[in-house]
Amino acid sequence: MTLENIIKRDFLKFSIPSDRAIAIETMKKNDIPELIALKEGTDTFLGIININDILSKPEEEQLALIMRREVPLINIKDNIEKAISLFLSGDYYYLPVVENSDVVGIISLKEILPLVNKKYKIKKLISEFIDNNYFMSVWENTPTYIASKIMLNFKVSFLGVLNNEGKFVGLLDTTDMIRAGEIISGITESDATKGESGDDWDWNWKASVLIGTSNFYLPNKPVSNYLKKGYSTINQNLPISQAIELFHKEETRYIAVIGDNNVLIGILRDIDILKAFKDLI
């Protein structure tokens, strides 16, 4: 089974060099948490720019120092099993597809899962796939800025949100953070010390250097203001094939697994399902 039929050739390309503000604006405009970075004027792959990486290095302006370069590439002639192995190697959602060193498209987990399920026909329940170690929740009145810090500190890309009664009311993920945030440009002043005589070796007087900056700010408003609308839910006692159908149908990476009385049991991720096929490849 080859990759040919699931390659997305019309994908968003982001050219490097560029700056952080443009990357964030591109993410906000397209409602996506990461970008495929190519060398300007070419289709040469340079890396992936992820919103979490930007937020983790707020002082860094240069995208070249933020983006992930060690991303696995897959060849257009490789098979589905090779793609599964690469997806699992680093919890990726997209894999760049290369031909003659140029990126010709991308493949996503959303497209991989139905094909893998059709081939291997795993008959297990959703309850067997929930990774409770990966799941975290916050109170609905938690400030959004604090929620972003929780995501970064615990290396998660989504949070469950609970109300005062402890009931699940929604999901908050990195795309919601992008929509909530604001880019603010400004000027900072830096002191460059010089010698009185102007010689490089004489360090006595100071000269001011103005530096343009663009910072991404998250509000301290409650996370309830930015909850994802129309999040997907599913019962843990259903077969995993139904979850795969839901992932493929909707633009989501996470499904809330709900029990009785709207109690949140866990979050099912697309990568959790893919792990079930690891021993079959």
Automatic annotation (TrEMBL):
InterPro entries registered for this protein in UniProt: CBS_dom (IPR000644), CBS_dom_sf (IPR046342), Diverse_CBS-Domain (IPR051257)
Database matches in PROSITE patterns: CBS
Keyword Ubl conjugation carried by entry: no
Keyword terms, alphabetized: CBS domain
Domain CBS: 67-122, 227-281
Pfam families assigned to the protein according to its UniProt record, in alphabetical order: CBS
Name of this protein: Inosine 5'-monophosphate dehydrogenase
Species the sequence originates in: Candidatus Methanofastidiosum methylothiophilum
Lineage summary: Archaea, Methanobacteriati, Methanobacteriota, Stenosarchaea group, Candidatus Methanofastidiosia
